[in-house]
From TrEMBL:
<keyword id="KW-0479">Metal-binding</keyword>
<feature type="compositionally biased region" description="Basic and acidic residues">
    <location>
        <begin position="36"/>
        <end position="45"/>
    </location>
</feature>
<feature type="region of interest" description="Disordered">
    <location>
        <begin position="27"/>
        <end position="87"/>
    </location>
</feature>
<feature type="domain" description="Zinc finger CHCC-type">
    <location>
        <begin position="111"/>
        <end position="146"/>
    </location>
</feature>
<dbReference type="InterPro" id="IPR019401">
    <property type="entry name" value="Znf_CHCC"/>
</dbReference>
<dbReference type="GO" id="GO:0008270">
    <property type="term" value="F:zinc ion binding"/>
</dbReference>
<protein>
    <submittedName>
        <fullName>Zinc-finger domain-containing protein</fullName>
    </submittedName>
</protein>
<keyword id="KW-0863">Zinc-finger</keyword>
<dbReference type="GO" id="GO:0005739">
    <property type="term" value="C:mitochondrion"/>
</dbReference>
<dbReference type="Pfam" id="PF10276">
    <property type="entry name" value="zf-CHCC"/>
</dbReference>
<keyword id="KW-0862">Zinc</keyword>
<dbReference type="GO" id="GO:0006120">
    <property type="term" value="P:mitochondrial electron transport, NADH to ubiquinone"/>
</dbReference>
Length: 166
């Protein structure tokens, strides 16, 4: 008795999932699909957009995706769950890739530097970074830049660096 009810419930859930693959806004915004007919005494709301949809950026400082596994924000926020979403009211955090490149280089005198994120429990596992080479060495977790004081003249003579030298 119970397996038949379970099968019926599974079939019903599959049918419901198929019904909600397209949102109402998407249906009515296409020109070849007519709006539902109005019955006598029934009020309907026209949800046809009057203005073209604004382009949704990934972040205020990044227009495109920065990872192959990332969905564009316009595709990721679709479906019945986001039907009533106004993207102008949604938070858009800055991309960390551009913010970390504003961090100044930490000049050190040691050949090997330890980085743990500096946040205590909110940091990351401690790793050791080699600063022997005449280049800016970055932490693989948080992206903080380190450079050996011995290589300062060489790094300052470069026309451009990805981190500010201070």
């Amino acid at each position: 008795m119970y397996p038949s009810r379970l099968r019926a419930a599974q079939q019903l859930s599959r049918q419901c999932a198929r019904l909600f693959t397209t949102s109402g806004r998407q249906l009515y915004s296409t020109s070849n699909v007519p709006a539902p007919e109005k019955k006598d005494g029934e009020k309907t709301v026209d949800i046809t957009p009057t203005e073209p949809a604004a382009i949704v950026k990934q972040a205020p400082n990044r227009a495109e995706v920065w990872s192959r596994s990332q969905q564009p924000r316009s595709k990721a926020m679709t479906g019945p769950r986001f039907e009533q979403t106004d993207f102008d009211l949604q938070p858009q955090p800055y991309s960390a890739m551009e913010l970390i490149h504003k961090q100044p280089v930490k000049w050190v005198h040691e050949r090997i530097v330890a980085c743990d994120g500096g946040g205590g429990p909110a940091g990351h596992p401690k790793i050791y970074i080699n600063t022997d080479k005449p280049e800016i060495a970055t932490c693989g977790y948080c992206g903080l830049p380190f450079a050996n004081e011995h290589n300062r003249k060489h790094l300052e003579s470069l026309p451009e660096t990805s981190y500010p030298l201070q």
